[in-house]
Q: What sequence folds into this?
């Protein structure tokens, strides 16, 4: 949906996960793109939608509090540990098996430390909600694509004022 470059670092995983569902068409590529089935797929859907809610919150939208509670609960099941390499550089790593939730938790923690977590947003268009990384200087971008979603929103506003 977007012409934007992917999010940096581990946020690219979060962005890709959220964008496995096309809200307007209902096309869901989560199982195919991440190779998930059964309970793992159900948990990944819950994770994806809770992450979408966080991205919407980053864009200034009101979201149901239950969604963020769900995200907190899912991330709590993926504890992280700090590891050091032979040069003393520190990194985060999943404490257990590096499943999808643990990889997402690592990406969020690293983005939080880098100050980039809140730059991952969801498009303001109700029929889109595509995740994108906001690279604008002020961090106030609203749409995944100015040429598609932004243009539609501006046209709706124009028509509402004229009619």
A:
């Amino acid at each position: 949906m977007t012409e934007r470059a992917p999010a940096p670092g581990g946020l690219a995983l979060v962005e890709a996960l959220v964008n496995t569902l096309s809200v307007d068409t209902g096309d869901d590529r989560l199982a195919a793109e991440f190779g998930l089935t059964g309970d793992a797929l159900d948990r990944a859907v819950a994770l994806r939608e809770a992450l979408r809610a966080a991205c919407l919150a980053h864009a200034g939208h009101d979201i149901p509090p239950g969604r963020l509670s769900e995200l907190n609960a899912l991330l709590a099941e993926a504890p992280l540990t700090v590891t050091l390499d032979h040069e003393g550089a520190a990194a985060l790593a999943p404490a257990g098996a590096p499943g999808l939730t643990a990889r997402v938790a690592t990406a969020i923690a690293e983005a939080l430390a880098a100050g980039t977590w809140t730059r991952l947003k969801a498009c303001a268009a109700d029929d889109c909600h595509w995740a994108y990384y906001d690279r604008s200087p002020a961090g106030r971008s609203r749409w995944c694509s100015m040429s598609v979603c932004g243009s539609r929103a501006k046209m709706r506003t124009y028509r509402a004022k004229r009619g």
Notes: Residues 38-58 form the longest helix (21 residues). The chain has a mean pLDDT of 88. The radius of gyration is 17 Å.
